[in-house]
Amino acid sequence: MSTFFSQNLRFLRSKMSEKTSQEKLAELIKIKKPTLGSYESGRAEPKYADLIEIAEFFKIEVDELLKEDLSKRLPGMANKPKLRILATTVDSNNEENIEMVPVKALAGYTASYDDVEFIQELPTFQVPFLPRDKKYRVFPIKGESMLPLQPGSLVFAEYVEDWTAIKDGTICIVVTREDGVVLKQVINHLADRKVLILNSTNKTYDPYPILGSEIQEIWKFAGYFHSDFPSKSEGNESEVRR
To answer: What are phi and psi for residue 108, nearest 5 degrees?
Structure first.
């Protein structure tokens, strides 16, 4: 993905109060000079830890460091917050439906999560034991990154309005521009660094950061459904676990 990182890094170094060499800046932000050189020339993608160090040193957000051409920033101009809209449906009694996103609709959901017509085409149902004052949606789980939760499970998830309030270690459905719909355990740095760290419960998968600007929706894990045939003695079984 193309970013302004190398350009911004060169610009920020040029604007330091004294003429600062790569060697001096590398020493100040505690990375190696060849690494800094490769970042400024665009020959290497920045490591997450280095991004944090650089952003904190220059007192700027990681998101701005990557996404904004800082040389064109006007003094005093603040970023305008985006309005977050949840597309939803209700039943004949004006009660919030629980929409289910089928596997075949997952790719489309990333592009049309805020499209009322798209959401209206999703299957809907009601679950009487879930709280009425919260909004839920159901997502299918693909892949093995969240084992022991099995692929094919259906996850019930609660809509999150305030992303910064999510506690570290919370399991969430995160809807992203690049990766689509993923179920991950999150470490929350959105308030201070505009970044979420996404962890898998299957430790063969490495954690990775995602910028807040790349996130479209977040839904907090509330339970799951599966219909396995565990053994002949137990018989066929369907259940919702929380």
So the answer is: -70, -30
Token pair 């920033």: residue: 73
CA atoms within 13 A on the CB side of 178: 9
202-238, pLDDT tens digit by residue?
A: 999 999 999 988 899 999 999 999 876 544 444 433 4
What number of residues does the chain have?
242
Of the candidates 225, 217, 236, the one whose C-alpha atom is nearest the C-alpha of residue 85 is 217
pTM over 0.70: no
How many C-beta neighbours within 10 Å does residue 201 have?
14
Q: What share of the chain is helix, strand, coil (3-state, %, to 5)?
A: 30, 25, 45
Say how far apart CA 107 and CA 139 lie, in whole Å.
12
Tokens of 92: 């004949």
- Give the whole-angstrom CA distance, residue 108 versus residue 130: 27
SS3 for 191? Answer: helix
Q: What is the C-alpha separation between 186 and 169, in angstroms, rounded?
A: 5
